[in-house]
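Lecture notes, unit on protein representations.

Consider one protein chain, 423 amino acids long.
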Amino acid sequence: MGYLTDTIQKSKGTGIVYVRSRKKTREIAQMLQQQKISADYYHAGLAPDLRSQKQDKWMNGEIRVIVATNAFGMGIDKPDVRFVIHLDLPDSLEAYFQEAGRGGRDGKKSVAVLLYNNSDKRRLHKMVTDSFPAIDIIRSVYNSVSNYLMIAIGSGKGGIFSFRIEDFSKRFGFQINAVYHSLKLLERQGYISYIENVDNYSRILFTVRRDDLYKIQLSNAALDTFIKLVLRSYTGVFTDFMNIDEALLARRSNLTGDFVYQQLKLLAQMNIINYIPQKKTPVIVLETERLDIQRINMSAEIYQNRKVKYQLQVDSVIDYALNDHTCRSVALLAYFGQYGSEPCGSCDVCKGDHESGIRFADFSRISAKITNILSAESCPIEELVKRIGEAEPVAVKVSRWLLDNGKIKSGLNGELMNDSRTQ
């Protein structure tokens, strides 16, 4: 926390502090305010209008520091961000690269800081375990959710149910984390849909085919006009849930909002549409009838392969944080498949000392020259030092380190050569 406040106080301009929990955004923002730093917090759990208000204030410079989860930043292009600080490790280098890249878009110097300690390593590894509960736990959650919603085996397909995860977890003795990730895995496998954020828009999905809908319209003139209004207003309603605005439908048809709501409820009762009214309570949609618990399985693509991939992502972040021998820029670009980049000369690794006792940036530059020369031909160290074009004591020190550590070899005649070259 001291490093965080020191960095912000030394830096000029606006910045972002990324943390992983919503609770922490508020706590860190309050701590910064106590240090007389203009700060506010942001996360996806805030009401849409409040999120927009906070974002606008930061964009306009009314707030200097925004403390946020990774929900903040998508689509934002503020050019004068002078610092991006990660107080918690992200779970992938892709996320870190994107979030750190929000600094310095005006081309001026900006600082990206990643704070790390050993507890972060344990926490990230725990995230992998938490994100992929055991199959037996996933099955148990599915079975308990079905009981909670009072759905009998073989029924419930297409049903839409309000679902309070806190109440469910407490009643059935599950950890909320295990329930949440089990629901997400069940969703990926196609058993359910777990819709968390339904406070922005209502949603509809036509459950009948177009031909059948046309027959319904012919036989029911009162519904025909309303169905035509919906189809003119929204496309794609036969293939997926679409966001709708009841107030907009009311204005377009000179109807009351309540009448539109009642018509949508009627269509849902007639099994013509699935209708999820606007509400803050998350909902579960059953994509299949309730199955026997033993029929609930996770494919390798959904479960094991994703778990392995996630573990590799987490390990890459930890390796990056622990790295003290490769330029940060070079390491990141290599992760994304871009090799041969020059050290940046300004990161903590480049500014630090190599174990040879020479500044890392100098060591990288000189060792690259040595490797380049010796890849073409072997030569005595005296000649090599002259050809390098660097201060002789430093060039000799780098050559000696490379030789002592097996990066280059000395032939029988005393000439130096690349490790890959033979006498």
